[in-house]
Design goal:
By secondary structure, the protein is an alpha+beta fold. It has 4 helices and 10 strands. Helix 1 runs parallel beside helix 3. About 35% of the residues are buried.
Length: about 200
């Protein structure tokens, strides 16, 4: 049960761990438009519509898997997370926390789990939007709950995508986030990663 509440730590802790690159990636050359000294880059930024190559990452605790772009790397974001990945120069992060169902009452549902995780996240924010929980399903037929919400943590505007899944006797909370200004670019990446969930 302790792990269930530890997801809330990822939000504030991540922003302090990642340092300035989470808040000001352009200043340190994070998005390719600027050089190391903050000067505009003389090289044009190449764009491509081709899908990125991926790497499969398996949970440290179970057979739960997800596929991430090769540009993502393992990060240290939350002590309770079984998967911790991100792309710091794009302000894109994702963690997975697993909770064993036997730690909860026999009537405890995925809806209950989602409500508790979401409530904990919102409680630690300075301000938050009014989130709406919706049903979630991957192209492989894995279903769960999902909610998108924004808020302010440590005076930084952040937007989150929380997805919860119950498989056998485990509740999975998958929390993806980015800064408010970069979330729209990050959302399709998050969607692709979430669609790759496997067991």
């Amino acid at each position: 049960m302790k792990k269930l509440f530890s997801a809330t730590l990822a939000v504030g802790l991540l922003l302090s761990i990642s340092g300035c690159s989470v808040i000001f990636p352009e200043v340190i050359g994070g998005d390719g438009r600027y050089g190391v000294n903050g000067e505009p880059s003389a090289e044009p930024v190449a764009t491509s519509s081709a899908p990125e190559e991926t790497q499969q990452v398996t949970s440290a605790l179970s057979s739960f898997t997800m596929s991430f772009p090769l540009t993502w790397e393992k990060l240290d974001l939350n002590d309770a997370a079984s998967i911790e990945m991100g792309r710091s120069n794009k302000d894109q992060y994702l963690i997975v926390i697993e909770d064993v169902a036997e730690d909860f009452d026999s009537n405890f549902t995925l809806e209950d789990f989602t409500d508790i995780v979401l409530g904990n996240l919102i409680d630690m924010m300075e301000t938050a939007t009014d989130p709406q929980i919706v049903d979630f399903m991957t192209t492989r037929g894995i279903s769960g709950k999902q909610v998108e919400f924004a808020g302010v943590v440590d005076k930084i505007r952040v937007k989150y995508l929380l997805t919860t899944i119950q498989k056998n006797d485990v509740f999975y909370q998958i929390l993806a986030w980015s800064t408010q200004s970069k979330y729209d670019a990050a959302k399709p990446v998050f969607d692709d990663i979430l669609d790759s969930v496997g067991f």
